[in-house]
Amino acid sequence: MFTLSDQGLVEVKKELARYEAKESAIIPSLYIAQKENKGFITPEMISYLSKVMDIPEARINEVFKFYTMFNQKPVGKYHVQVCTNISCALEGGREMAHHICHELGVKYDEVTSDGRFTVSKVECLGSCGTAPMMQVNDTYHEKLTPETAMNLLRGMK
C-alpha cells in the first residue's frame, strides 16, 4: 500500500494550507506523490491522496488524467518528452522523436531494456520559438536536430 514519506506528507499538507480551495493543491500534491514513486502515479496513490486531502478520487483523477506531466505507468530514469505540436512539427520534431526511438530501440512510452529511457510524444511545451525541443525530466533542450538530441541522450547513459 502506498503512503507518502513523512516529508511528502508535510509537503502535501503545506499545499493544502496554501490555498483557499483545497482542489488547488491537487497538481502540486500529484507531483509530490509522483516523485516519491519513481516517476509515476498508480490508482492506489490516487486513493491515498483522496483520503489525505479529503477530495473525491474522481476529482483528483480528472486532473491526473488531463495533464500529460503525470505518468500513468513506469518511466525510465530519463523521461524524454519530445514536442510534436505544430511549431516543433514544422521544424522536424516528429522526425526527431521517431529518430530517438529508433536509436534507442524502443517504441513510444516504453522503457528501454536498461531502464534508462522512456520517449513520449507530447503536446506543446511552450518553447515554440526554439523548436524543435524536448524535455528530459525537468530540463528543456531546445533548437535540436536528431543528432544533437541523441548526443545529449548518449551523455546521460
Explain the overall architecture.
The protein has 157 residues and is an alpha+beta fold. It is built from seven helices and four strands. β3 and β4 (139-141) form a beta hairpin. α1 (6-18) runs antiparallel to α2 and α2 crosses α3. The longest helix is centred in the N-terminal third of the chain and has 13 residues, at 6-18. It starts with 5 loop residues before the first helix and ends with a helix. The mean pLDDT is 96.
Number of helices: 7
Radius of gyration of CA atoms, rounded to a whole number: 17 Å
The count of DSSP E runs of length 2 or more, i.e. the number of strands, is: 4
- Low-confidence segments: none
Characterize the overall form: elongated
Structure class: alpha+beta
- Portion of residues in beta strands equals 5-15%
- Helix and strand string, N-terminal first? HHHHEHHEEEH
Estimate the helix proportion, in percent.
Answer: 40-55%
In short:
The protein has helices at 6-18, 26-36, 43-53, 57-66, 86-90, 93-104, 146-154; strands spanning 78-83, 117-122, 134-136, 139-141. The protein is an alpha+beta fold and 157 residues long.
Main attributes?
157 residues, alpha+beta, four-stranded mixed β-sheet, 7 helices, 4 strands, 11% strand, elongated
Give a topology summary.
Elements: H1 6-18, H2 26-36, H3 43-53, H4 57-66, E1 78-83, H5 86-90, H6 93-104, E2 117-122, E3 134-136, E4 139-141, H7 146-154
Parallel strand pairs: 1-2
Antiparallel strand pairs: 1-3, 3-4
